[in-house]
Design goal:
The chain has 404 residues and is an alpha+beta fold. The protein has 16 helices and 14 strands. It binds protoporphyrin IX containing FE (HEM). GO terms for molecular function: heme binding; iron ion binding; monooxygenase activity; oxidoreductase activity, acting on paired donors, with incorporation or reduction of molecular oxygen.
Length: 404
Amino acid sequence: MPPAPIPSHVPEHRVHRFDFRDQDGLRHDPWTYLAGMSDLPDIFFSPDLGGYWVVTRAALIDEVFCDHERFTATSLAIPRIENPMTLIPNHFDPPRHGVYRKLMANGMFSPRALATLEPDTRRLTLDLFDGFAPGTCEFVHDFAYRLPIDIFLELMGADAAYRDECLHFIKLVFRGTTLAQTTEGFVAANAFVTRWLDAQVAAPAANAGPMFQAMLAARIEGRPLNVEEMRAITMMLFMGGLDTITSQMTHIMRFLAESPGHRQALIDRPETIPVALEELLRRFGISYIGRAVATDFTWRGVELRRGDAVCAATPIAGLDRRAFPDPLVVDFDRAGAGRRVKHLGFGSGPHLCIGAHLARVQLTVMLQELLPRMPGLRVAAGHAIENLPGSTMMLKALPLQWNC
Ligand code: HEM
């Protein structure tokens, strides 16, 4: 995509090139590159991806997430897409957002719907481990792509045989390098979800998925959700809940494979994993989230115009040295022994990730179950690890070896 013209309200000293989908620095060593962004202005304008504002201070990124009156979620995509598919609840601002959010939190994401999440995750994790060749796996495809989708399909009561079809459109949407590929992914996802939902709604009693049943039981202003709403919610979960966990897993496992001290600390004291995980989520943020400016206003001395795109990036927030001294250092006690570091890895404000508990359980169980079974874990020698930039950052492949 050629650089966009610089709008007249953007001063020259605020212009800096940054393409989070295709930046060289993000392919080689994304974390050092992103930590270096603390040296740039707090808010700068990139002519890439159609032209958008990038916020580099964690405190301001938090403000973008929280201030829905000035930063609307009704336009999330960067670059902007005309007539995007509505994803519920992400595409709505309060108060409309809150109606759907509440219904999802009280039903689909309630403790009741997720009652067997932890044992199910443990079972599926061990099944996947048992499927590895002795002492070796290609972690991205053998594990990180599989666990989140297998769990999600179970929760929705969908057949595990759909895994490959779903992975196909997820990869197109998130890893596509052209607009044509991402559009193809969305169209395929929509066709799948529509076909699958129609079949479930026609015979709901046959579906044993607690998340699907909660969606069916949900009431909005006294009525059940219509199929269109169910489709927009299901699409949202496919788009928000799969590639994100996969991406997060790849960076965390790579770090632990290359850092025996941190790994051993978690093996020796597995009860500290939930606290350590928060530091890993801070250090390896993955999501570039979009908003649009809702009204002309001046923000911290910067003139913003209605419709301007703004990027709130969780990896930039987590590596902001004004919020986290020595941000590249992984320090499980960063917030004090036994205390969880506060980070923006799951966003903040009204749209704070509703699947955060699901993600934390999967990541915690992965660390609890895999690390002790992989003594001497290391990245297989002779492989260059390739980072894939995109709206979530992930590793293309992660060949691992351990002693057995
Ligand atoms: C490590 C894994 C995950 C990460 C890093 C992550 C990150 C995020 C972030 C940053 C947001 C805020 C978006 C915004 O402000 O516009 C968000 C929202 C959301 N996430 Fe996640 N997410 C993860 C896992 C999941 C899972 C497992 C699910 C569900 C299956 C999920 C479903 C959602 C939904 C539905 C929203 C929109 C919530 C709303 O608009 O109220 N996410 N996520």
